[in-house]
Design a protein that fits this description.
This protein has helices spanning about 5, 20, 55-70, 90-100, 105-120, 130-135, 145-160, 165-180, 190-200, 210-240, 250-280, 295-325, 335-345, and strands at about 30-35, 35-45, 50, 280-285, 290. The chain is mainly α and about 350 residues long.
């Protein structure tokens, strides 16, 4: 029986699930093999790809979202207009590859795979006693299942589990298929870690909250923004790696990116559902008072969007700036190539408002 037919048997209004159920994938007619590694997910009898751990997870998310709607609460929406463009963009990346300049693209794809692997840290996020910190009941919600399978399923999707590969391995496979197992620069991880170490830990925006609760909500909001902005990365990766002019395996490499994109939908949906449930509730503070969940979630999302829309474009350029000047030397006319790259730049200005600004007063 395929995962697709398994999921059809789940009651659409069921709200409570066991941990093992949220981690269940069902069976597949054929496995997904990426770069010689057995990866999660697989294919049904028709040959369609089916994401892992969705047999119960997606029906559960849909039921929790339906409950929110019945109670008159909207789902949190991150504006796509806040999504910075990928650098280099598809046209610039293709131009580099057409001119034999591979290092910048190899770096970019390797950074993406490493970031995906880092996604496993969400399993280490501490979930406090939410029933004591949230005024209203949380039974039958995504909130109540964060530590009961949702965080763990997300972690396994990103970095793999046991002998199964995850998104890290799938991005590596897409890169290696398209660029025929290129040499990986040895300083990619070191540069990433150096930039991360240079960042200061931000001050707590809501010190009146239980610190574990505040940290959990902040990480969830951060990951949600990253997941939604990753849609631009998926589009970039698919269009570039499925381009037969620059990809050695356009169909296979493009399909691998498409599989990863399909797997990300459960992440976006459970995170926005749980955060929306918080927005619809009241939080207890450490001094015995209460605070609107909406003000907390919106405040966290506002800070993240404000910072990311201003720092991410420059960080992407900084990641490649030093290596690009050296890499283009292999091109027949390096300066002309740099000029052509500049002419293809994507103009983008961060939006003036995030849509989650604190209310005046």
């Amino acid at each position: 029986m395929s995962a697709a037919s398994d999921s059809a048997e789940i009651a659409p209004d069921r709200l409570t699930y066991a941990r093992d159920e949220l981690l269940e994938s069902g069976s597949y007619a054929a496995p997904l093999i990426a770069g010689g590694v057995r990866c999660h997910g697989g294919f049904d009898e028709s040959g369609a790809y089916r994401s892992p751990r969705t047999i119960h997870r997606m029906p559960a998310v849909r039921a929790w979202q339906a409950r929110l709607a019945r109670d008159g609460h909207a789902l949190l929406e991150i504006p796509r207009a806040a999504m910075p463009p990928q650098y280099p963009n598809v046209e610039q990346a293709a131009l580099l590859l057409e001119n034999g300049v591979r290092d910048p693209i190899v770096r970019t794809l390797t950074v993406i795979s490493i970031v995906e692997g880092f996604g496993a840290i969400i399993r280490d996020v501490r979930v406090p006693d939410l029933a004591s910190l949230v005024v209203e009941p949380i039974e039958g919600t995504a909130l109540a299942h964060l530590g009961g399978g949702l965080f763990e399923a997300h972690a396994r999707d990103e970095s793999g589990w046991k002998d199964e590969g995850g998104h890290k391995q799938m991005w590596e496979a897409a890169r290696d298929l398209a660029l025929e197992k290129p040499k990986i620069p040895g300083d990619v991880l070191l540069r990433m870690m150096g930039r991360q170490a240079a960042r200061r830990r931000p001050e707590r925006p809501f010190p009146q909250l239980d610190e574990t609760l505040e940290r959990m909500l902040a990480i969830m909001a951060q990951v949600l923004v990253v997941e939604i902005f990753a849609e631009g990365t998926f589009d970039w990766g698919y269009r570039l790696l499925s381009n037969p002019k620059v990809s050695a395996a356009p169909e296979a490499a493009g399909a691998m990116v498409a599989h990863i994109r399909a797997d990300e939908s459960p992440h976006v949906e459970y995170l926005r559902t749980a955060l929306s449930e918080v927005r619809a509730r009241t939080l207890r503070t450490v001094d015995g008072k209460t605070l609107s969940g909406r003000s907390v979630v919106d405040g966290l999302v506002h800070r993240i969007l404000r910072d990311v829309t201003r720092t991410r474009p420059q960080e992407q350029r900084d990641d490649l700036r030093d290596s690009l000047a050296e890499a283009v030397k292999v091109a027949p006319n390096p300066q002309r190539l740099l000029d052509e790259l500049g002419a293809l730049d994507t103009e983008w200005t961060p939006p003036a408002h995030t849509g989650f600004e604190p209310a005046a007063g």
